Amino acid sequence: GIAHYTVQSHREIDKIDSSVDRSSMARPLELAVRLSTPNDNAAINLSTKFGCQEKDAREMIRRIRSQIHALPGISIHTGSQNEDPDVYVGAIKKISAIAIEEGGVHTMNVGGGLPVNYHANDTFSVRHYLDVISRALEEYSRYALRGDDPKIILEVGRIMVAECIDLMIPVLAVENRNRGRCIYINDGVYTSFSDFVVHDWPYNFLCRGKNGKKLSEKCVPFEVFGRTCDSGDSLGQIVLPENLDEGDYLWLKNAGAYMDSQGGHFNGFGMPHYIAYNR
Fold it and tell me: Most CB atoms closer than 10 Å: which of 83, 225, 227, 268?
C-alpha cells in the first residue's frame, strides 16, 4: 500500500514499477527524484552517497510522468547538521526551476539537516532556519507544484529529538599508559558513539564529579576507551578535567538523535538505561 518512493536512477524506477501493486494503493504511485546537493557546511555531506545529477533528474521526471504514468516529485537533502541556512535557498531555487521547466511536480521534499546546538557556543535557531526555508519556498516554488493536493515535505528529524536525552556515562577506570593518560567508560563505539567515530560528530563532552565532587578547571587530553574487548573501541583524545577519576561521569547533552538507534549488543552489552523524569 506504500505509494510514495524516492529514486535516483532509472534502474530504481524500473524496480519499483515492476514490484508495486498499484491496486492496493489508496492514492496514485509517486516517485520523487533525488537531486545531488553537495554541501561543505554540513557535518555529513549526504550527496557523496545519494542524489543524481540535474540532467538525469530531468530525464527521470519526464519518464515518470509519460512512461511510468506516476506522479513525479523532486527531493533533496543539503546534509546533516547544515550550518548554513542559505544553502537551502540555493537548493530550493534550483529544484523549483527544474520542476517548472519539466512541467511541475506533485511533491517537493527539501530534506532535513536543521542543526542542533551541541556546543556551548552554538547559536542555531530553528525559527530562523524555518523562516529562511519558508521565504525561499514562497519565492521560488509557486509554479513548481502541480496537481491535486500537492505537498512540500520537510524532514525535521534530529532537531525534534536531540534535546530530549542527556547521557551520564560512568568512568570505569583511569590509567596511565605508554600513550599517556586514558579512561575507560561504560559506553563506547558499539553503543552510543558510532556516529562520533564514523562521522567525527561534534559532540561536546562535559563532566560531573561523583557525589558533588569539584572537578578541576585545568583540562588535559585523555584517551577515551569504551567497555568492550575491541581495541578499536576508542573515542580518541578528548580534553577533560585533570582530576577526572573512577566513579565520575562524562556528561553529554543533546544525545537524543542517532545514538541508541545505531547501537548494538557486541560483547553482550546493551544500550544505556534511560530514566524519564519531569522538570
Answer: 225
